[in-house]
Amino acid sequence: MQHDLELLNLCKRYPGGHQAVDNFCLQARRGEFISIVGPSGCGKTTTLRMLAGFESLSSGRILLRGQDIGHLPPEQRPTSTIFQDFALFPHMTVRENIAFGLQVRRLAPAAMKARIDHMLGLFELDAVAGRRGSQLSGGQRQRVALARGLAVQPDILLLDEPLGALDANLRKSIQHELKLLQREVGITFLFVTHAQSEALVLSDRVVVMNRGRAEQIATPHTLYTRPATPFVARFIGRNALLAGRVQALGHGVALVDTALGLLKGSPAENSGLRIGDRALLVVPSEAMDLRAAPDDETQAPEGQIAGHVSGRTYTGQTVRLQVELADGECLSIKRHVDHADDLPNAARVQVSWPIAEATVIPAGPDPGSCL
Ligand SMILES: Nc1ncnc2c1ncn2[C@@H]1O[C@H](COP(=O)(O)OP(=O)(O)OP(=O)(O)O)[C@@H](O)[C@H]1O
């Protein structure tokens, strides 16, 4: 199958030697909504700018439907970019802003008018078509930016934190519109965001970037349930990470010898784990079950861990109980507010999880993130 977009071993080394993007690879299907998330400075914007042509590649290739576009100037690439500040021309009207890219592409006047009218209708901007960019609300400016980006009928829409400047309510409603729009126009979206939850809600797949590299590219569900690296396990969702060594492997189960006893999980696919390897058992907070320890049990049964409740935070219908373990580590476990008082502070508890819902991954090098 030919991919819509292929990024092959993209590298960017800025003058001065900083490696901002390091062998970044991604293949996207036509119409996919892909987000790139990662800590500040990990190379998200640089990747997007290389795609748009605003930044040169140090090495690597960008293929669009098989054609190498990596060395074309921005105006010759079939991409549109929407930036966080929307970059509208404040002195131009909404209509003129949308017309801009079409004029650059020298569209015939009749075709241009038809295209602009269609965009004004699609984004419900007819009523403000004559207003200047400086006279619009945040939401309207965002819609003009989208209309301007899509008017040129790009093959790929690149979005760099396009919702970052909006307040929380507007952001939610525009998120929804963006998803509907993407389905309607059917083109590939590449979306850079700091907001992990936004990426997980909107995307077909998410790229988790760290230090210029794609650590894992997967569906939101897989990232949550099967993180492939220690960085992803720390960055996505709320996971407990228990360090140890693999003691046994077989039948889809890995037995890990940890400071808290022998614990079980499911080895990550293609992890190459072997007996004796240093490993992390990753247990999602949602998978953890908590119960009071029976008085006559001083140690947790095999496969479970013992601790005591050391604090709680109420968040509406749910409570997060902090559970301190024997090694001093703390877990945060969600519980319905109705069951929170069953386990008062200082109560001795046992924590268990379904083996299939915990993932065992290689411990890897020490964790780190971009500075
Ligand atoms: N023009 C430049 N010259 C030198 N270094 C740069 C330049 N632009 C970015 N960098 C560096 O490259 C790295 C990646 O930057 P980039 O803007 O791609 O990160 P990011 O993941 O988008 O960050 P943020 O989430 O903070 O926007 C950073 O360390 C940054 O300081």
Automatic annotation (TrEMBL):
InterPro entries for this protein: AAA+_ATPase, ABC_SmlMolc_Importer, ABC_transporter-like_ATP-bd, ABC_transporter-like_CS, Mo/tungstate-bd_C_term_dom, P-loop_NTPase, Transp-assoc_OB_typ2
Keyword Cell membrane in record: yes
The organism's place on the tree of life at top rank: Bacteria
Keyword Transport: yes
Stored Gene3D superfamilies: 2.40.50.100, P-loop containing nucleotide triphosphate hydrolases (3.40.50.300)
TM stretches of this protein: none
The ABC transporter domain, residue ranges: 5-236
UniProt entry keywords in alphabetical sequence: ATP-binding, Cell membrane, Membrane, Nucleotide-binding, Transport
An annotated Gene Ontology molecular function: ATP hydrolysis activity
Example of a GO biological process term: putrescine transport
One GO CC term, this protein: ATP-binding cassette (ABC) transporter complex
PANTHER family: SPERMIDINE/PUTRESCINE IMPORT ATP-BINDING PROTEIN POTA (PTHR42781), SPERMIDINE_PUTRESCINE IMPORT ATP-BINDING PROTEIN POTA (PTHR42781:SF4)
Protein name: ABC transporter related
Organism: Verminephrobacter eiseniae (strain EF01-2)
